[in-house]
Amino acid sequence: MTYEFITKNGMPMIQISAINNTGIAEGYCSTRNGGNSKGEWGSLNCSIYKLLDIENSRKDFKLFCSAINVDPNKVITNRLIAGTNIVRTVTEADLIDIYNEPIAPRADGLITQSKEITLYMYSADCAIIQLVDTKTESIGMLHAGWKGTLNGIISNTVNAMHDTFDADPSNLIAVICPSIGKCCFEVGSDVAVQFKNAGLGNFISNEYEKPHIDLFGANKEMLIRAGLKEQNISVIDLCTFCHSDLLHSYRRGPIKDGKHLNGMNGMFLRLI
């Protein structure tokens, strides 16, 4: 089983069973239920930086941390640079005021062997991928939107775990968390060409009026190219756009003055 819907300490969530079953790590994904946020961001919004109902969203973040028995002061997140291939190794020495975005690590991938911290990333349509190596007891998490997928964030994170912790890619357990599905990920011809040029043409669907990308499939292929075994890769194939009652979506969210007013889904990963 890759995942299951559970209620933990009163909070509905997605338990990432493929991670938890390793016996050395725990992974969870928030839903948009069980929090304080209102309206388009309700009721649980795990955005800690986006200035939309920021007071309630930070309360939601703390609520979720409490539900999974995580100290929010021992959580490390990244200052997202969507589309980069930068990976940072983090430890408890990197703990900062998590609500202070300018000083958060600038990276799209984080790796650690520390049991004193929890890795956290958020998204609304892009994929978050969690990695666990049971032999070296190391973990990693990365943001793989389409730009990051094409720019090498997956191979860079896998290589960083190998170079830093001696984690063999063939031993890694990977879970691709909820993201926008092929059904809803419409792209322009320029993006489709980039996927084709990267050897990912098989993940371009032409059954719609415009090209659609299978981001789940493309990210799985990139994990295999990075050295992971296919049987060690799981996919939580919940489309963020389709599941409006369950997950936040960037593309589905309202737009005002050219700004997307969507909430965020939070992904948590820690060693135990």
Question: What this model shows, in words?
Answer:
The mean pLDDT is 93. It contains six helices and 16 strands. It has 272 residues and is of the alpha+beta class. β8 (127-133) and β9 (138-144) form a beta hairpin. Helix content is 21%, strand content 25%. The chain has one domain (4-271): CNF1/YfiH-like putative cysteine hydrolases.
Main traits of this protein?
6-stranded mixed beta sheet, 6 helices, alpha+beta, single chain, CNF1/YfiH-like putative cysteine hydrolases, 16 strands, 272 residues
What is the fold's blueprint, element by element?
Layout (H helix, E strand, L loop, with lengths): L3 E5 L2 E5 L1 H4 L4 E6 L23 H14 L7 E3 L9 E3 L19 E4 L5 E6 L3 E7 L4 E7 L1 H6 L1 H13 L7 E4 L12 H9 L6 E2 L6 E2 L1 H11 L7 E3 L19 E2 L2 E2 L4 E7 L1
Parallel strand pairs: 4-7, 5-6, 10-13
Antiparallel strand pairs: 1-2, 2-3, 3-16, 6-9, 7-16, 8-9, 8-10, 11-12, 14-15
Count of DSSP-assigned helices: 6
What is the makeup of the main sheet? Answer: 6 strands, mixed
Unreliably modeled segments? none
Name given to the CATH architecture: 4-Layer Sandwich
Elements, N to C (H/E): EEHEHEEEEEEHHEHEEHEEEE
Distance between the termini: 20 Å
Mean pLDDT: 93
Alpha-beta classification: alpha+beta
Tell me the count of domains: 1
Please state roughly what percent of the residues sit in beta strands, choosing from under 5%, 5-15%, 15-25%, 25-35%, 35-45% or over 45%. 25-35%
CATH class: Alpha Beta
Query: What helical percentage do the residues reach?
Result: 10-25%
